[in-house]
Design goal:
Length: 245
């Protein structure tokens, strides 16, 4: 079996080491004997979504998002067909905002891909925090770090998780990220997947199911990853729960 991972615009959308997520997907495939090929796309490269199984859209500053948004118009239709066909996507922070209709900033509107029914508005102050969220379909919480000025509203869509600590999509909803078909959008930055191997495996399982009809992944020894995850949950969630008692 083989999965092909497309990394969109790593030269512009690469805040906080989003590349670590690519390495994590690649390694967790290889450890299971699944071949993984990564293709990086620069702004002027044509993207043939029919050859891709997972797409990563990373985070970027408002300036970089503005540059990317011009180019996205050209791939909007084929990206949408890929998503509607069940293609897997992991979009982080700036990339997450670009999945939606628009991101309104003080310097103007950044048009999005409208792949998911959501929109973002800039607010103040920036929402910067460690963050822990819970997705009820996953046994282990999802941990990470967020740093965004945008407040995202996901209309009727399902969030990636409920906020146990931190801000999430905006200060109001106590929801973080979005799940739409096999698309995951999230504000959790940088090494999201190494810190949360269960999220990585969800992406891989969805991609394998779509391509080969196989939805079981061989287990890996995640003792260290899960210990690190537990440490963060204990540090932020358990500590703030006990302060409330
Ligand atoms: N520029 C966006 C914001 O501030 C996204 C930033 C990011 O990717 N960290 O909301």
């Amino acid at each position: 079996m083989k999965l092909k991972i497309g990394h969109l615009y790593p030269d512009l959308l690469n805040l906080y080491g989003d590349r670590g997520n690519i390495q994590c997907m690649k390694k967790r495939c290889e450890w299971r004997g699944i071949e993984a090929e990564v293709q990086e796309f620069e702004l002027d490269d044509p993207v043939d979504f029919s050859t891709l199984d997972i797409v990563l859209l990373g985070g970027g500053s408002d300036r970089e998002q503005m540059l990317v948004c011009e180019k996205l118009r050209g791939i909007k239709k084929s990206f949408r067909d890929y998503v509607e066909d069940g293609g897997s996507v992991i979009a982080v922070c700036g990339g997450y905002q670009l999945l939606g209709h628009y991101y309104d900033t003080d310097d103007g509107r950044i048009e999005g891909l409208s792949l998911v029914d959501l929109y973002t508005e800039q607010g103040s102050p920036r929402l910067i925090s460690n963050i822990v969220i819970q997705n009820d379909a996953l046994k282990v919480p999802i941990v990470g770090f967020e740093n965004h000025g945008g407040r995202t509203y996901i209309n009727g869509n399902k969030p990636l998780g409920k906020v146990l600590y931190g801000y999430g999509n905006n200060e109001k909803d106590k929801a973080e990220g979005v799940l739409y078909k096999n698309v995951i959008g999230t504000y959790l930055h940088g090494p999201l997947l190494p810190k949360n191997p269960h999220v990585c495996d969800l992406l891989l399982a969805n991609a394998l199911e779509r391509k080969y009809g196989v939805n079981e992944l061989a287990p890996l020894d995640d003792t260290q990853e899960l210990e690190a995850n537990r440490y963060i949950v204990d540090r932020f969630v358990s500590a703030s729960d006990s302060r409330k008692d």
